[in-house]
């Protein structure tokens, strides 16, 4: 047993940190609040994992990218039944993405990906983001929003906006986007959802097809078509060529799969969480409608208060000290970014969602250190544009009568609404 792990609270940790329970998914923040002050690095015996919720401990863990590696981030979060596991072992499911490594390979790959999200690229992209947002909002306006059950803003706006944008940046053909979304869901569900062995087996089969599709898509650029420079698929394909290639074709497939998911799921859910927080108190929404400049503050406050990404996995490559706790080599560590945003020691009224906070962002919503989110500028831009567009097109927006938030299974990773029914 490592030193300094207060075993006296172990039973509470397991009861309170149960990511398969509805209670935890509805409000993981109660668990963080309970742990943060007493066991900022808590050993969860059920999962045999260390859960980090203290802010200083999070910074220390995230600074140590070699002692605490990200390479198992995409291995999944739930036990996989043997038959499905056999299928997955024949795929790239357990292959780390280059993002998840540390050192020169990671630095070089990040530099390459960053080129697609520079301020200049985003300036060029912004009118297109606005155009897609306005088209989606116009469809809703045309339909009318007075039905008793409301319209699901998540499915009709928060999802298609970032999915269309990232598909265009990457170069996923329009005709394939529905299939890609299905495959993407299968991949994510295999990682975080409590599935039956049969469901796992079915999704594992789909994963092989997904990888084959992405490989073929990359190879369509082998003929050197002129558009090869313009999207991520073209760039990634070229990155596999030459004497000192940036990555192999398999690594390009894994990177693409990661970018498709990271490039929309996270932002879809951030937009939905933001709108939910704003509509929960009608005066908040009225304030954004009256002053759309508040949209930027709403984005930052959602990242702090109710981010779509809650945490990530690290694995100790050696004995590592996090705060007062010695984490043994080989241990799994959950870095709960979302716990830092609600630390009352650094954020006044941390449990409150407020639009009048000043100063630089005081959260770890996009992580920290060498793995800081590559897509943060795009996510911020898309979410801000989403709120501005909705405020302009649907100023009377409100939650559908009787709406009770229900969250998707997200493990220790996501905090995502199932749906967001609204009326106007
Ligand atoms: C609201 C939206 C988003 C949130 C809350 C979010 C959050 C995060 C967080 C917390 C990390 C750090 C993970 C870790 O340390 O293990 C991360 C990494 C990453 N994100 Fe995002 N993300 C968002 C949107 C995006 C978008 C739009 C893209 C791509 C266009 C993206 C691409 C990535 C990549 C590639 C990494 C890995 C970086 C690395 O390991 O070097 N994310 N994101």
UniProtKB/TrEMBL annotation:
<dbReference type="GO" id="GO:0020037">
    <property type="term" value="F:heme binding"/>
</dbReference>
<dbReference type="InterPro" id="IPR017972">
    <property type="entry name" value="Cyt_P450_CS"/>
</dbReference>
<dbReference type="GO" id="GO:0005506">
    <property type="term" value="F:iron ion binding"/>
</dbReference>
<dbReference type="InterPro" id="IPR036396">
    <property type="entry name" value="Cyt_P450_sf"/>
</dbReference>
<protein>
    <submittedName>
        <fullName>Cytochrome P450</fullName>
    </submittedName>
</protein>
<dbReference type="Pfam" id="PF00067">
    <property type="entry name" value="p450"/>
</dbReference>
<dbReference type="InterPro" id="IPR002397">
    <property type="entry name" value="Cyt_P450_B"/>
</dbReference>
<keyword id="KW-0503">Monooxygenase</keyword>
<dbReference type="GO" id="GO:0004497">
    <property type="term" value="F:monooxygenase activity"/>
</dbReference>
<dbReference type="InterPro" id="IPR001128">
    <property type="entry name" value="Cyt_P450"/>
</dbReference>
<dbReference type="GO" id="GO:0016705">
    <property type="term" value="F:oxidoreductase activity, acting on paired donors, with incorporation or reduction of molecular oxygen"/>
</dbReference>
<keyword id="KW-0560">Oxidoreductase</keyword>
<keyword id="KW-0479">Metal-binding</keyword>
<keyword id="KW-0408">Iron</keyword>
<keyword id="KW-0349">Heme</keyword>
<comment type="similarity">
    <text>Belongs to the cytochrome P450 family.</text>
</comment>
């Amino acid at each position: 047993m490592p030193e300094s792990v207060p075993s006296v609270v172990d039973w509470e940790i397991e009861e309170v940190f149960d990511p398969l329970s509805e209670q935890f998914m509805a409000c993981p923040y109660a668990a963080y609040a309970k742990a943060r002050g007493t066991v900022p690095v808590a050993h969860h015996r059920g999962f045999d994992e260390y859960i980090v919720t203290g802010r200083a401990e999070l910074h220390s863990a995230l600074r140590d990218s070699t002692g605490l590696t990200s390479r198992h981030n995409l291995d999944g979060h739930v036990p996989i039944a043997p038959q499905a596991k056999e299928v997955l072992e024949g795929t790239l499911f357990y292959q780390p993405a280059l993002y998840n490594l540390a050192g020169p390979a990671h630095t070089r790959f990040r530099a390459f990906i960053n080129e697609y999200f520079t301020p200049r690229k985003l300036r060029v992209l912004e009118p297109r983001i606005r155009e897609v947002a306005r088209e989606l909002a116009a469809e809703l306006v045309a339909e009318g929003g007075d039905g008793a059950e409301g319209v699901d803003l998540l499915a009709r706006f928060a999802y298609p906006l970032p999915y269309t944008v990232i598909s265009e940046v990457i170069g996923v053909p329009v005709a394939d986007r529905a299939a890609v979304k299905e495959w993407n869901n299968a991949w994510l569900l295999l990682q975080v959802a409590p599935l039956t062995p049969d469901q796992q087996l079915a999704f594992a089969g789909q994963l092989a097809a997904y990888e084959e599709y992405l490989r073929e898509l990359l190879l369509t650029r082998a003929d050197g078509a002129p558009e090869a420079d313009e999207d991520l698929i073209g760039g990634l394909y070229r990155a596999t060529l030459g004497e000192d290639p940036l990555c192999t074709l398999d690594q390009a497939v894994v990177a693409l799969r990661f970018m498709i998911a990271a490039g929309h799921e996270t932002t879809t859910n951030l937009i939905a969480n933001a709108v939910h927080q704003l509509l929960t108190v009608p005066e908040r929404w009225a304030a954004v409608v009256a002053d759309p400049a508040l949209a930027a503050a709403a984005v930052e406050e959602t990242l702090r208060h109710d981010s779509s990404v809650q945490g990530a996995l690290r694995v100790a490559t050696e004995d590592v000290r996090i705060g007062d706790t010695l984490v043994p080599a080989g241990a799994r560590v959950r870095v709960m970014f979302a716990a830092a945003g609600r630390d009352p020691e650094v954020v006044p009224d941390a449990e409150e969602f407020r639009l009048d906070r000043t100063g630089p962002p005081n959260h770890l919503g996009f992580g920290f250190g060498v793995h800081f989110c590559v897509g943060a500028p795009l996510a911020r831009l898309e979410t801000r544009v989403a709120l501005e567009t909705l405020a302009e097109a649907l100023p009377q927006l409100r939650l559908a009568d009787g709406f009770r938030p229900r969250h998707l299974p997200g493990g220790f990773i996501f905090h995502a609404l199932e749906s967001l029914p609204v009326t106007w």
